[in-house]
Amino acid sequence: MFELLLGLRYTRAKRRNGFISFISLVSILGIALGVAALIIVLSVMNGFQEEVRNRILGMTAHMTIAAPDGQLYDWEHAADIASRHDQVLGSAPFVLGQGLLTSGEQVKGTLVRGVDPQHEAAVSEIPQKMEIGKLDDLKAGEFNIVLGWEMARELGVNLGDKVTLITPQGQVTPAGMIPRLKQFKVVGVFKADYYPYDAGLALLNIQDAQRLFRMGDAVSGVHVKLSDIMLARQLAPKINVELPNLYVNDWTHENPTYFRAVEIEKRMMFIILTLIVAVAAFNLVSTLVMLVTDKQADIAILRTLGASPGSILRIFMIQGAISGFVGTAAGVIGGVLVAKNIGVIVPQIERLIGARILSADVYLITELPSRVIPGDVVSIAIISLLLALLATVYPSWRAARINPAEALRYE
């Protein structure tokens, strides 16, 4: 155990050369900062991915059953087939279309979704997202509408106001194609905390939407909610076999760009920040090389007392590994603490600089989320320790090759 004791002693000892101590401290701090940065960035990306996914799926469903031509007539049959699977919690029909909403001089493009208030709560969180009014106020034949809060703000409308919906399904007249216009009464405002929905989604009663888009008794499709969203990819093909004339898509196919972009960015940031940790870890090389040069006489005396080259190698590897361990431990603790409290830290920074870090129309969300995954933290710590251990190999090997006679010649 004398190699361990000497390695610990060299780590704690006040060196005669203060520059070596400074370089050693910088190496430890570099490793700590690199590890902390890697944990914080990956945690924020994990939180962003989970937050966007939850907000997207909170306003829609885990799976969608639709007809090839966009008009599904016997939706009850499709919903019944899907509900035979134990993983299915609920289903609801919907009608989907596009249009323009106008109020005064304000015009806003929108995605129009016709929903059945009685069934919608089984597949989405829209009833819980209502800021003003209730989803049940979308009664058939009354031509009421529910808007996202951002759209309502941009149109300048409130509860009870009228808006005009213009749809592309126009009427052919001797004067040419005239778009269809219908006036609706605003009976509710929802807030999904997800900008594309808050600024671009309008809800109608499904019967009003069928009449508006001239779909008769058909619907655009059926939304299906599962007990576990991760089961959607496996369950969708099974339901598609039972409904061969229909399309069954899961949430991973309906919103691929967001999740694919975040996943690719997460991998690239992991590689880039790991290189930063590697640079900091390999600073240990210069520290240990200078230390070996400074301790040549000590090494020579140990060799004359019977220490083997392997023992000398282990002494300096232990010292470098301890520096790597200290830096990694400090980085893990600091990174986890910051990642856990990112929701408190970011508002303070925004208040200090007087600007918002996250713009809702760019980043889709208004608050910086964070989710610390233990597996990521363990992987980062192991990589950091391995890099630090690798950095000690050459200086330790050089120390083991020192000739005692040459080292003591001028002492």
Structure description:
The protein has helices at 2-12, 18-59, 75-83, 117-120, 126-129, 149-155, 195-200, 206-212, 232-242, 251-254, 256-294, 296-304, 309-340, 342-353, 360-363, 374-391, 393-400, 404-408, and strands at residues 63-66, 88-103, 106-115, 130-133, 144-148, 162-173, 176-190, 201-205, 221-226, 247-250. By secondary structure, it is α+β, with helices and mostly antiparallel strands. It has two domains: 2-54 and 258-408, no CATH class; 68-245, no CATH class. Strands 2-3-8-5-7-6 form a six-stranded mixed beta barrel. A hairpin with a 2-residue loop joins strand 6 and strand 7 (176-190). Helix 2 (18-59) packs antiparallel against helix 16 (374-391). The longest helix is centred in the first third of the chain and has 42 residues, at 18-59. The mean pLDDT is 82.
Mean pLDDT: 82
Q: What is the count of helical runs?
A: 18
The biggest beta sheet is recorded as: 6 strands, mixed, barrel
Overall 3D shape: elongated
Residue windows where pLDDT falls under 50 for at least 5 positions: none
Quick one: how many beta strands?
A: 10
Counted up, domains total 2
Topology pattern, helix = H, strand = E:
HHEHEEHHEEHEEHEHEHEHHHHHHHHH
Strand ordering within the main sheet: 2-3-8-5-7-6
In angstroms, what is the radius of gyration? 32 Å
Helical content band: 55-70%
Class from helix and strand fractions: alpha+beta
Report the sheet-strand fraction: 15-25%
CA-CA gap between termini: 28 Å
